[in-house]
Fold this sequence. Notes:
Blueprint: H1 14-32, H2 34-49, H3 52-59, H4 63-81, H5 84-99, E1 101-106, E2 109-114, H6 116-151, E3 177-185, E4 188-196, H7 200-217, H8 224-238, E5 245-252, E6 258-264, E7 270-273, E8 276-279, E9 297-301, E10 307-309, H9 313-316, H10 327-338
Antiparallel strand pairs: 1-2, 3-4, 4-5, 5-6, 6-9, 7-8, 7-10
Amino acid sequence: xxxxxxxxxxxxxxxxxxxxxxxxxxxxxxxxxxxxxxxxxxxxxxxxxxxxxxxxxxxxxxxxxxxxxxxxxxxxxxxxxxxxxxxxxxxxxxxxxxxxxxxxxxxxxxxxxxxxxxxxxxxxxxxxxxxxxxxxxxxxxxxxxxxxxxxxxxxxxxxxxxxxxxxxxxxxxxxxxxxxxxxxxxxxxxxxxxxxxxxxxxxxxxxxxxxxxxxxxxxxxxxxxxxxxxxxxxxxxxxxxxxxxxxxxxxxxxxxxxxxxxxxxxxxxxxxxxxxxxxxxxxxxxxxxxxxxxxxxxxxxxxxxxxxxxxxxxxxxxxxxxxxxxxxxxxxxxxxxxxxxxx
Length: 343
């Protein structure tokens, strides 16, 4: 008789998992407070299910009526997010749960119809279907993240005379941040830091297009201004409405502190020289907005010990549990404190 190998993964135990979950929730409640967790949960629900118009209409109500209207609009928003079949199932579940037990007089006999049970069954069925869709989408996003990370440099580039460190962390499973390195020839290396407007899959797809376009076009142009115009025309032609990309594109010369820089709508990089932080000039418009936009190339010279930091707004707009942004001042302090510690 064949026996399962000891290496066969076992299914997690339900009650042990629930016990661990309870411990995790209790610890989180102890750290953040119940009120903070509840209010944050409702804010997230409102942002997802309520339109701006609905929120404005609710805010005009008195405090007591506002609670009832908010609950009604949340239920409406929930129903409108579902497919037609699931919307009908959930609406029917609400009706059955509301009706509860119904007593009918048939002759001399009383007949009691228990309507809550089928309502609960319908509610659980809709929940299971929605969870299935979410898990399938999650698996696809995880696969997309794997592909996206594979397209980026697997290690920091080695360029003679330079210490280069590159890092990205998507806000979701996939994101619109681009970090790339491309050796152009023996005399120069290109580094790219891009940020596509929006998040998730649409931004990730446009990021891949931006990366492929840059890699294909960089050898064809002598100046970064010409490169920016060519990439911009392609993104305007093939892009999506309200989707654009900001970009910092650097070309480094080995054994030299000289670099050429293209900034298309991105936060200006910082340069640390002799213990002081200076901000480079702002660049041109973001890519993919105007077909006839013009771009300019900047020249930057760094000396030994100088540090240039290019970043996306995901750094300065990162927020802690209290809702405070990391901000530019903290970023500058971090640059001053960590200069010379690049791995």
